[in-house]
Amino acid sequence: MAAAESLLLVTDGRSYELAGLHALDGRGRLRLRVPDDCGLATEVALAPRGIVAALLKFTDIAPTAVRDRVRARVTLSGWLTPVGRPADAPVVDMRLDFAHAELAAGPEAITVGLDELTLASSDPLAVHEADMLTHLIDVHSDELALLARLVDARLLRGAPRVLPLAVDRYGITLRLEHTHTHHDVRLPFPTPLHHAAEAGDRVQTLLAAARACPRLDQSPLQP
Assign residue 64 a region: left if phi > 0, alpha if psi is -120 to 50, beta otherwise? Predict the structure, then answer.
């Protein structure tokens, strides 16, 4: 949610594309800052007690050119409440009070507890992930091929293309693309990281483990 670049907000009357206009505060609450001439600002201003029921739909899209780039969808429902207008900008700040949260990262959606959602912290790599993964492909394709040594050889058979799909505090996920299907494999870090600055050391640990693996007798992987 902290780094999502796709956000659709739906009220009883309209829908709004609000990518880049949201943030999470230190208490895990979702905030919106919208132009004061936006239809949503008007809708909230005219609503009884200034509260509007809303549905927010986040889509997590892989930053790399993998097949099927949608990695997850998050749906939040709740009530929007205006919390102020900064004196130096023509905007309206709003807060979403959660009522229900749902996560779909596969064929089925799961409900996320509201306490769990509020207490969760943003992943330290969330805002850096896109740059890290594209840099790995563009500049370090040799290291990407090296990381593939950590994947079970049986999964690599018939997968001419291996791309990084995701990286977070727990590890790197590679997507193995076969002719008609794909397979995602997680390469876990030895320990979860707490700060983005720790990512380099964690990746180097994976690369060291990969160098210790025997080379696979197979065609070169295409990044």
Answer: beta
Residue 175: φ, ψ to 5°: -105, 125
Question: Do residues 9 and 19 lie in contact, with contact meaning Cβ atoms separated by under 8 Å?
Answer: no
Stated pTM of the model: 0.82
- 171: alpha, beta or left, given left = phi > 0 and alpha = psi -120 to 50? left
- According to DSSP, residue 87 is labeled T
Tell whether the torsion through CA atoms of 50, 119, 117 and 19 is positive or negative.
positive
Sign of torsion, CA 184 119 110 57? negative
Closest CA to 104 of 77, 73, 75: 73
| Non-local CB neighbours of 11 within 8 Å, separated by 6+ positions | 40, 43, 52, 53, 54, 55, 80
Looking at the DSSP bridge assignments, the partners of residue 110 are 103
What tokens appear for 118 in the block? 């509020």
Amino acid sitting at position 72: A
Angle at Cα 164 formed by Cα 138 and Cα 215, nearest 5°?
90
Q: 3-state class of 50 per DSSP?
A: helix
- The model's pLDDT over 19-47, given as tens digits with 9 standing for 90+, comes to 888 988 777 778 999 998 889 999 998 88
